[in-house]
Q: What sequence folds into this?
């Protein structure tokens, strides 16, 4: 039986990298990136993918795809032809439709067709949250699916440096920063999806509190016609080694997204015992459980009160313990090892 596996994606994100590292422990993994940056590039990329799969799909034990989208349809079709199992990770964007912002695969009818038929034809769809799984069951009730949460590599954040060991006596109760939010914001569309306008409004009505936003360029505020609050510090995307210091030194983690399938940054912040104040959106309440504060992201005054309460609380290892117990990379690896062919 072949030990070769094929990984297909459009962007080698942290999620994809994490799964690749797991699969590579048991299989010889071939990476295949499809360029979907423009319609013209997508057309040629799909044709190239078709030729590649027709000549090579039979060589693989299975095909593993991140997101159901244009790039997932041909692998599911040809996978059935060659009797090769095809697994698709449903990450959230691929089952989303935000009409006002033209966001999500289902905002485009053609893209929606490719997406839903990929889901229907896949051997198994791996849903990153219960929220995602509910949507999959609704749009494709006969499709095979299972819940497999994203994983956080907790050991990288904590155990490599005793300074960050929250499970000992090293709890930081005198945080250097009050409120933190982390989101990679490359476009104006993402600016609103991640609720950056809400976060800025929150900072504006709490001038005595320091707010930090990592991953968003100030130019996007200009495009949105919004002036950053004076007490809001904007920092660019940074390496994980630097980012963990902001998690460690922040008291509250706040995320007011309009759409959010899981939120890796929320899990990372909680792994440093930040107290979460997050919108009742998508999978974020699943990450926090009964800890922290779940709020109506559009009710900024109510969010303000939750922030005040959170700032009055001490950081506690119960936050990091939840991430270890529920969302560690080890748990995801164990889940994948049960699902993928032996």
A:
């Amino acid at each position: 039986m072949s030990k070769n596996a094929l990984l297909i994606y459009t962007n080698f994100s942290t999620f994809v990298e994490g799964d690749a590292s797991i699969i590579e422990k048991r299989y010889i993994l071939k990476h295949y990136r499809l360029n979907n940056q423009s319609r013209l590039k997508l057309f040629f990329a799909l044709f190239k993918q078709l030729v590649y799969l027709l000549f090579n799909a039979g060589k693989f034990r299975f095909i593993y795809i991140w997101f159901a989208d244009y790039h997932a349809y041909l692998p599911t079709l040809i996978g059935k032809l060659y009797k090769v199992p095809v697994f698709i990770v449903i990450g959230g964007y691929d089952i989303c439709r935000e009409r006002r912002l033209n966001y999500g695969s289902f905002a485009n009818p053609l893209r929606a067709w490719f997406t839903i038929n990929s889901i229907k034809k896949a051997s198994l769809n791996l849903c990153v949250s219960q929220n995602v799984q509910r949507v999959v069951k609704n749009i494709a009730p006969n499709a095979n699916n299972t819940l497999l949460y994203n994983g956080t590599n907790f050991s990288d954040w904590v155990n490599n440096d005793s300074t960050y060991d929250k499970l000992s006596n090293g709890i930081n109760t005198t945080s250097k920063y009050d409120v933190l939010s982390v989101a990679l914001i490359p476009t104006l569309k993402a600016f609103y999806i991640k609720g950056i306008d809400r976060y800025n409004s929150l900072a504006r009505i709490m001038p005595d509190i320091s707010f930090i936003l990592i991953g968003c360029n100030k130019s996007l505020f200009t495009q949105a016609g919004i002036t950053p609050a004076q007490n809001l510090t904007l920092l660019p995307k940074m390496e994980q080694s630097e980012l963990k210091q902001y998690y460690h030194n922040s008291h509250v983690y706040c995320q007011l997204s309009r759409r959010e399938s899981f939120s890796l940054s929320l899990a990372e912040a909680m792994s440093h015992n930040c107290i979460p104040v997050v919108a009742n959106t998508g999978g974020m309440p699943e990450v926090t459980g009964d800890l922290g504060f779940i709020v109506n992201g559009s009710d900024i005054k109510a969010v303000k009160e939750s922030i005040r309460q959170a700032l009055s609380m001490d950081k506690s290892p119960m936050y990091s313990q939840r991430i270890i117990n529920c969302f560690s990379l080890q748990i995801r690896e164990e889940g994948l090892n049960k699902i993928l062919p032996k």
Notes: The chain has 15 helices and twelve strands. Residues 252 and 275 are 5 Å apart (CA to CA).
